[in-house]
Design goal:
Arc Repressor Mutant, subunit A, single chain, 23% strand, D-Maltodextrin-Binding Protein, domain 2, 12 helices, alpha/beta, two-stranded antiparallel sheet, 2 domains
């Protein structure tokens, strides 16, 4: 069963004869007859009751007509969504949890107001998993930690973040990973790029965290740090939105670790009208707003 057969079936129903349907579709009648027979064989039912030169829908044909019309309409919608000039359909979007919490609420609200025909489906995952999903075609685009390393990706740098080391208030100033030698690190899964950055900072010093405790929530990380159980790494923009952030202290990291751009990335050659509309709403001023120094 294919779309061509469905179009032929609906045309015959609308025209009331194979000859008129063939003329409308610019085909020979014998071609329609053959394709309709193949459709019936595929379905295992007779769609028409044939009486001499007259065709009328069978009970099964009447049921199938509704599905055929809906399938053809859905195909038209899909075609318009991926190739049309107007944003429509579903936009499968991915994001790091930090970006989704701080930057996306206002952006997606504006997008919905301007393009109500688009249904945005947002998924939050670590950067590594998001990139895999974009390359596999499961997501149209995703907000990920840059820079982009795959030649199959395109994108634009959108938000400049400052990663900070979050410590208990009573902890002594931290200048190198050696100052954290016996302290657990709270982090997301290994596919999290922020975790890879902070673990790289340890490795450069020839060290490793005493223990990595995986937690999938910045709120929970903050609570654990405030309780004195360890340290965590997160964007300052996220930290400042969390209730209770006054109970911890933020330590600046070396610029090569702490300064990072968030990119909106998509698979090369796959931009749609819906994605183009989102790109146009991204901030034009991508200057990093200075943040206040946290006293040591």
């Amino acid at each position: 069963m294919d779309l061509t057969q469905l179009k032929m079936f609906c045309a015959v129903v609308e025209e009331g004869s194979i000859a008129r349907a063939a003329d409308r579709l610019h085909r020979v009648p014998s071609n329609l007859t053959t394709r309709l027979r193949q459709l019936e064989e595929n379905l295992g039912v007779d769609l028409f009751i044939r009486e001499r030169q007259r065709l009328r829908l069978s009970p099964s044909g009447s049921i199938f007509l509704d599905y055929a019309e809906r399938l053809l309409k859905l195909a038209d919608e899909a075609r318009a969504a991926v190739a049309g000039d107007q944003p429509a359909g579903t936009l499968a979007l991915g994001s790091m949890q930090a970006t989704a919490a701080v930057h996306l609420p206002q952006l997606l609200a504006r997008y919905h107001q301007q393009f109500p025909e688009v249904s945005v489906q947002l998924t939050t995952r670590p950067t590594g998993e998001l990139i895999e999903a974009v390359l596999a075609g499961q997501l149209a685009a995703a907000f990920v930690d840059g820079p982009l390393s795959s030649p199959n990706l395109e994108g634009v740098a959108v938000y400049l973040e400052e990663l900070v080391l979050v410590m208990p208030q009573q902890h002594a100033p931290v200048r190198t990973p050696a100052d954290l030698e016996q302290i657990p690190l709270f982090a997301f899964r290994p596919t999290c790029s922020f975790r890879r950055r902070i673990e790289g900072w340890y490795r450069e010093a020839g060290l490793a965290p005493a223990r990595v405790m995986e937690i999938d929530s910045y709120h929970t990380m903050l609570g654990c740090v405030a309780a004195g159980s360890g340290v965590a790494c997160m964007p300052r923009s996220v930290l400042e939105t969390l209730p209770g952030h006054e109970a911890v202290r933020a330590c600046k990291l070396p610029e090569e670790i702490g300064r990072t751009w968030t990119w909106l990335a998509w698979r090369k050659g796959t931009r749609s009208a819906s994605l183009d509309a989102l790109v146009k709403l991204l901030p034009e001023n991508r200057e990093f707003s200075p943040v206040l120094e946290v006293p040591a």
